[in-house]
Request: fold
Amino acid sequence: MTRREFVAAGAAGAATVGEAGAQAGRPAPRILAVSAHPADFCSRAGGTLIKHVRAGSKAKVIWLTQGESDESDFLIKQRPGISVAEVRRIREKEAFACAEVIGAEGKMFGFGDGPLLMTPERMEMLAREITDFKPDLILTHWKDELTYPTHWRTSRSVIEAAQMARVSWDIRFFEPNIGTASRVGFVPDHYVDISEVFERKVEALKTLAAQPRLVSDYTACNRWRGIECSRQYAEAFVRWAPKPPVYELLGA
Ligand SMILES: [Zn+2]
Reply:
């Protein structure tokens, strides 16, 4: 393998793992995304999920909150006096519409945000969902996103619940809140080339009408991550890996 091929293989990241597995006759990986708010899973990992679903993966998204407090500013400004219940209803409807475009199953916990609080009972509910779905890969928020308590608490809860569930420990952390990566130490260690599914990702983002900036913000983010790995558009991840990869560096 030349150095360029080595870098490209690393750059393809999770998508390479899934597609190669399917091509080799092994089942495509089951992928679970755990999202703090309705849009997070799509803005950070929607392209990766679309790519895997097209390659035969089963994908599921769990939302811990409906985002009624943390990420509904636009909706509340548009409709002064709107009730919290109505905000929740609209955000949940958008979340499921988004998952449908991606081809993922959805499960809304609706624990409430601003910030999210996780009780032992809620931890058990999350662990039970993970146990039932039996994911090969789990995608969730960056574990050190201390600047955003609901995201950070989601990440920590997923790490703990995955261990309670005794299933996959292969967790891939996606981007922190846009614009904060350098402040919270998010340095990607692999990328997924989403160029061929980017238009579909944009379609999915457009279902999240309560957050109209997502399309322009994540077009910029995915283009920037694409530049980092020499692709048109990419999504970036950090891997929480109990089994570190082994490469034959000599002769690479
Ligand atoms: Zn969020």
